[in-house]
Amino acid sequence: MSEEQIKNLEEQFEARIARDEKIEPKDWMPEKYRKTHIRQMSQHAHSEIVGMLPEGNWITRAPSLRRKVALLAKVQDEAGHGLYLYSATETLGISRDEMYEQLHTGKAKYSSIFNYPTVTWADMGAIGWLVDGAAIINQVPLCNTSYGPYARAMIRVCKEESFHQRQGYEIMIKLANGTPEQKDMAQDALNRWWWPSLMMLGPTDDVSVHTAQSMKWKLKRKSNDDLRQQFIDQTVPQAELIGLTIPDPDLKWNEEKGSYDFGDIDWDEFWQVVKGHGPMNKERMKARVGAWERGEWVRDAAMAHAEKKQERKEK
Amino acid sequence: MKNENLYNYLLGIADNSLILGQRMGELCGHGPSLETDIACTNISLDLFGQVRSYFQYAGKIVGDGRTEDDIAMLRKERDYKNVLLVEQPNTNFAFTIGRQFLFDVYHLIFLAELQKSNDLTLSAIANKCIKEVSYHVRFSSDWVKRLGDGTEESKAKMQEAIDALWTYTDELFHQTEADVAMVAKGIGVDVTKLKEDYYLRVGELLKEATLHVPESKWFQKGGKEGIHTEHLGYLLSDLQYMQRTYPNMEW
Ligand SMILES: [Fe+2]
Ligand SMILES: [Fe+2]
Ligand SMILES: [Fe+2]
Questions:
Q1: What are phi and psi of B63, to 5 degrees?
Q2: DSSP secondary-structure letter at A261?
């Protein structure tokens, strides 16, 4: 193809997106579009899978049968999200095994929030409420993103994430209205998860890279700072309603701008965790890589069995 | 205690689901593939759902205010009535599958009989559970076949697991005092009558999986009487942790 032709295709492509048309797997797309989507979508899939670990940590110790069942179902949903997102990413011409390889070698990232430990039961509440809550704010705009398979995956995923968020908040309500010990447990969880949750909305706009391109492709529709503000404004009243205190002495309602002012985020901590030195980075990777390696003989067996069955059929 | 035999009978059934559900729950996020991970979590979910039905009923029968969680999480080691098979650890995926398979086959034929119970609540629960358990049997049988008739390595591992777990199968067909009383009333299932069918089904599937049926005639027992392997205590310390550390609270 001549340069002229490619330029033409690119213009048509961008025009389709501007008209709110969906790009489908068989459509022509610029290489950069493909690569950017593989990166973002696989990162999202990895986050779902690694995200199973901190909550999976409390399945055997859930305080009641009802909570145990709900937690199992939630973690299973996250596995389903992972599956769904890996399949959507595969439509761009990369295999799930290749994506795993990138995760296991550290080439691909996943959401940093999962590098914090879940130390008490209240963390199950805080994660649902805050982490799924922040994820929804990140992901709702993606329901209208330009790549069809991703947009459709997001619609389904967001529905379940809202359910998770309510379920998490409901755990917090119960604790906040419980005994002093339970209330302390809830407050302590909020104290630990609040700032990392704010960081989930991404670096501040002045340092955030590839935003302009992402906006054009509808991979991003609002800036990180706007999303963060939205999250804070939505969450603060929820904390107040159940008598918990946001661990930010600078948090104050700003009448003029109609939203909350808040204190400085510790971006050094954010980058430390992103670069692999958070409290649980090594353990999370060890768990994923370990499961993969321990499972190798099982996957080999399944493959060998399928081949034998096929051979027998052909005979 | 009011209705002591029926209460104990329900616990004898439900504890198997409880302990196996707990074992399957341990694997969540650590399985050999995303698909098996989801399936194992699903089985765990089903089993805990069953447990809730049984224990809610058990609580009602005793009628002294004890809840499903009290029954599940606040008993002593010696008061758990599950068979030894279900408490065996997730040594590797072959053990997980072997344990599941050896229990599922029993569970299915047991529930088919329990559906005929003249206790209407119990037969309704059995009716609900049997649909789930039919799926469990399919899942675990398929995997026994895959691993048995897969690679050299998987065959050896699957055989090793079946050989090791075989010793716990006979206990499935032992009767407790509560069993005998409930069978006499037309409420319970006479498990001694399920034995032949069980070994026939298991034997056939193992053959299909190119595995051999263990010949050992030495069997372990005790779970139904509350004498467990050393594995159970650790499982219970996880299961009971919150209820023991924070007594009398709601979650
Ligand atoms: Fe997500
Ligand atoms: Fe998710
Ligand atoms: Fe979620």
A1: 65, 30
A2: E
The answer for residues whose C-beta is within 8 angstroms of residue A216's C-beta and 6 or more apart is A14, A17
Report how far residue B199's alpha carbon sits from residue A131's, in angstroms, rounded to the nearest whole number: 49
Report the Cα B215 to chain-centroid distance in Å.
23
- Look at residue A210 in the predicted model and tell me its pLDDT: 63
Residue ranges of domains in chain B: 4-213+223-245
DSSP letters spanning A267-297: HHHHHHIIIIISTTHHHHHHHHHHHHHHTHH
Phi and psi at B2, nearest 5°, equal: -70, 140
Q: What is the ipTM of this complex?
A: 0.97
- Asked whether the beta carbons of B107 and B85 are under 8 A apart, the reply is no
The answer for A93, left when phi > 0, alpha when psi is -120 to 50, beta otherwise, is left
Average pLDDT, chain B: 97
Q: Measure the CA–CA gap between A158 and A50, rounded to whole angstroms.
A: 18
Residue A256 buriedness (CB in 10 A; 0-12 / 13-18 / 19+): exposed
Residue A44 CA to ligand 1 center (angstroms) comes to 7
* CA gap B72, B58 in Å, rounded: 11
pLDDT digits (tens, 9 = 90+) for B54-97: 999 999 999 999 999 999 999 999 999 999 999 999 999 999 99
Instruction: Report the DSSP beta bridge partners of residue A260.
Output: A253
Residues in A 90-119 with any Cβ partner in B closer than 8 A: none
A291–B32: do the CB atoms touch at under 8 Å?
Answer: yes
Residues of chain A with pLDDT under 70: 209-210
Q: Which of the ligands is closest to the CA of residue A161?
A: 3
Q: Write out pLDDT tens, residues A3-12.
A: 888 889 999 9
CB contact under 8 A, B28 and A56: yes
Chain A residue whose CA is closest to B97? A298
CA distance A183 to chain B (A): 12
DSSP string, A203-250: S-TTT--SHHHHHHTTS-SS-HHHHHHHHHHHHHHHHHHTT---S-TT
Residue B58's closest CA among B77, B43, B74, B72? B72
In CATH, which superfamily holds the domain spanning B4-213+223-245? Ferritin, core subunit, four-helix bundle (1.20.1260.10)
Tell me what the mean pLDDT of segment B16-33 comes to.
Answer: 96
Q: List CB contacts of A158: < 8 A, sequence separation 6 or more.
A: A136, A139, A140, A143
Render pLDDT for A230-248 as a digit per residue (tens, 0 to 9).
999 999 999 999 999 999 9
- Would the CB atoms of B41 and A53 count as touching at under 8 Å? no
